[in-house]
């Protein structure tokens, strides 16, 4: 019973905040223009600040986290070809949407929020480092898919490096690690200001995700959308947890790895599906379906994991 209560304490507040965002749009208190501006503010300003402050002020050392980062990287690399194989029976126009939806998780918002709820600031710092590694792999896969499904476009290392180098989340994480290694001490007024900005990140981002949900799309969900959602919410966590177990991760690290792996499909997969000329409706269905189902799968998975670890 205590394990189940712990799982609900991690996922429940996230689900309720999503529902509030959805409800605020329905009653007209949140408008599309505000959601667009707030989402941009989160991505460019407050989320990078959150990642910087959580890593910079964390007592965890990067060298101690290499097993977690290794498990996350290897597990992600294993799920990518599996997603490609699973998409083979689909029509060519549906494959890019399926593949992106099957492995690309919403780490920056849902994953971080779950890790913070479950393990506090130390879990958040671990999740931020893991997100940096996995995000680079996501970008590599996205550019590769773009080259594979758009014949007129070739794979470009310069394009990949440019996208990584311009990613504000990766920039914030690298800067935080560099400042820590150099032993810099930031003025308390800057850290306090950073805390103010960081504190609005997850609630605002979750409201925006909830406001962007279109539950009407769920009625049009296909077997492909269900398959991609189950791949993301069940197979991906199992693969990453297996990697974590093989490298001997301790309990909290396994929990962080699971929560990040169990995050639903990232909304950027919808954008990538459109860029790839794929089925954008399928991509939207995967995002909506996986977001709602993730509350159930993550809760049950966390119950099982905590029961095994206890």
From TrEMBL:
Membrane topology term: Multi-pass membrane protein
Assigned GO CC terms: plasma membrane
GO BP terms in the entry: transmembrane transport
Compartment annotation: Cell membrane
Domain of life: Bacteria
InterPro entries with a match to the protein in the record: Mem_transp_PIN-like, Na+/solute_symporter_sf
TM helices/strands, residue ranges: 6-29, 41-60, 66-85, 97-116, 128-149, 223-247, 253-273, 282-305
Keywords: Cell membrane, Membrane, Transmembrane, Transmembrane helix, Transport
Keyword Membrane annotated: yes
Family affiliation: Belongs to the auxin efflux carrier (TC 2.A.69) family.
Protein name listed in UniProt: Transporter
């Amino acid at each position: 019973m205590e394990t189940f209560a712990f799982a609900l304490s991690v996922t429940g507040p996230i689900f309720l905040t999503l529902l509030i965002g959805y409800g605020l749009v329905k009653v007209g208190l949140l408008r599309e223009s505000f959601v667009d501006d707030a989402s941009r503010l989160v991505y460019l300003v407050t989320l990078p600040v959150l990642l910087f402050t959580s890593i910079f002020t964390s007592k965890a050392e990067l060298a101690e986290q290499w097993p977690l980062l290794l498990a996350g990287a290897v597990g992600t690399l294993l799920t990518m070809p599996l997603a490609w194989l699973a998409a083979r029976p689909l029509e060519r126009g549906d494959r890019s949407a399926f593949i992106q939806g099957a492995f690309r998780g919403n780490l920056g918002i849902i994953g971080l929020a779950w890790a913070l709820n479950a393990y506090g600031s130390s879990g958040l710092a671990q999740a931020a480092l893991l997100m940096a590694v996995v995000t680079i792999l996501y970008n590599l896969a996205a550019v590769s898919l773009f080259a594979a499904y758009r014949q007129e476009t070739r794979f470009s290392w310069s394009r990949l490096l440019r996208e990584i180098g311009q990613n504000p989340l990766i920039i914030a994480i690298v800067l935080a690690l560099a400042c820590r290694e150099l032993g810099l001490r930031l003025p308390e007024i800057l850290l306090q200001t950073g805390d103010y900005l960081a504190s609005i990140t997850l609630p605002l981002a979750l409201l925006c995700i909830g406001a962007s949900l279109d539950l009407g799309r769920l009625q049009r969900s296909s077997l492909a959308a269900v398959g991609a959602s189950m791949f993301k919410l069940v197979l991906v966590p199992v693969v990453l947890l297996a990697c974590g177990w093989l490298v001997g991760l301790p309990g909290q690290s396994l929990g962080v790895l699971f929560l990040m792996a169990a995050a639903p499909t990232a909304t950027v997969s919808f954008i990538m599906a459109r860029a790839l000329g794929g089925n954008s409706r399928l991509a939207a269905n995967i995002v909506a379906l996986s977001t709602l189902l993730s509350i159930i799968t993550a809760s049950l998975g966390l119950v099982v994991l905590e029961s095994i670890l206890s």
